[in-house]
Write a structure and sequence with these properties.
With about 70 residues, this protein is mainly α. The protein has a domain at about 15-60. The chain has helices spanning about 5-10, 20-30, 35-40, 55, 65. Helix 2 runs antiparallel to helix 3. The mean pLDDT is about 85.
Amino acid sequence: MIWTTQLASYLEDAPWPATKDELLEFSIRTGCPREVMENLRELEDGEQLYDSIEELWIDYPSSEDFYPEDEEEY
């Protein structure tokens, strides 16, 4: 399973928390790229609820990664 920020962005408006099937349905309904659906299909089957993209992609960059708090003022 390979995620990029671009692929993960397609799931920002997903109905969290959601199961694998709900996420797949959302991705089909919203026209996500094939790679997003392939990543979702690789998830374990079952009724596990995922609360956010961070549960699917542990290294999902947060806003702090893009805008780190800098203690030094300019």
